[in-house]
């Protein structure tokens, strides 16, 4: 079974109630996947993933009538996210260029960031109402010792305390 096929299944548990809980879940899935391979996620890629999770989940909660499904699936190319909400409305900017808004009006940065940091974006209306947004966020795994292939250490993550 391909990784994308896994993301089409309904989640077995209730979706996270907040963007923070969704980030924690995504991090736990990525960490478990990496540990099983003796590797850890590239910190910059992990930051990108957590930002995309935040934006998609926040959009579902604020604009989509609530989050009804959230699936995180590691794939050979990265992490596939499937976010389900109750709204049939497809945001017009979802298939945009990723350009940031010319004027800051307090919002409008989420979809451009999702577009810039994700690949294979798809939005499907659900037969039972609402929609599912699927994206692939590229994620590289590095050796557990934190050294990149070039022999440099990854910078500390703002999402995880630095090792002592």
Tell me what the structure shows:
- The chain has 164 residues and is an alpha+beta fold.
- The chain is built from four helices and six strands; from the N terminus they run H-H-E-H-E-E-H-E-E-E.
- The strands form two sheets. The protein has a four-stranded antiparallel sheet. Strands 1-6 form a two-stranded antiparallel ribbon.
- The N terminus and C terminus are likely disordered.
**Nearest-integer average pLDDT:** 83
The best one-word shape is globular
Write the H/E string, N to C. Answer: HHEHEEHEEE
Low-confidence stretches: 1-11, 147-151, 156-164
What profile does the largest beta sheet have?
4 strands, antiparallel
Number of helices: 4
How many beta strands in the DSSP annotation? 6
Q: What's the end-to-end separation, in Å?
A: 40 Å
* Portion in helices: 25-40%
Radius of gyration using CA atoms only:
16 Å
Strand order within the widest sheet? 2-3-5-4
Binned strand content = 15-25%
Secondary-structure-based class equals alpha+beta
């Amino acid at each position: 079974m391909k990784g994308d096929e896994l993301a089409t299944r309904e989640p077995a548990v209730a979706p996270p109630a907040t963007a923070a809980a969704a980030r924690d879940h995504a991090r736990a899935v990525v960490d478990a996947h990496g540990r099983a391979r003796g590797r850890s996620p590239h910190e910059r890629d992990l930051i990108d993933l957590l930002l995309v999770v935040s934006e998609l989940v926040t959009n579902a909660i604020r604009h989509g009538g609530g989050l009804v499904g959230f699936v995180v699936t590691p794939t050979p190319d990265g992490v596939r996210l499937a976010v389900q909400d109750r709204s049939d409305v497809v945001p017009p900017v979802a298939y945009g260029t990723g350009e940031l808004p010319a004027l800051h009006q307090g919002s409008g940065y989420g979809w451009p960031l999702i577009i810039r940091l994700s690949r294979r974006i798809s939005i499907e209306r659900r037969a039972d109402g609402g929609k599912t947004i699927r994206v692939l966020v590229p994620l590289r795994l590095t050796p557990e010792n934190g050294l990149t292939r070039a022999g440099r250490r990854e910078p500390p993550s703002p999402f995880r305390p630095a090792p002592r």
